[in-house]
Amino acid sequence: MLTLMLVAAIIVKAQTTPVQFTSQLVTTGYADAEIVFSGTMAPGWHVYSTELGNDGPISATFNVTKMDGVELIGKLTARGEEINKYDKLFEMQLRYFENKVQFVQKVRFLKSDYTIDAYLEYGSCNDESCMPPAQVEFKAQGKSAQFCDGPDCQKPCCKPEANAVKSESHACCKGEGTASKAECPMHKGETHACCKDAKTAYKTHATKKATAKRRVARKKK
Question: Model pTM greater than 0.85?
Answer without folding.
Answer: no
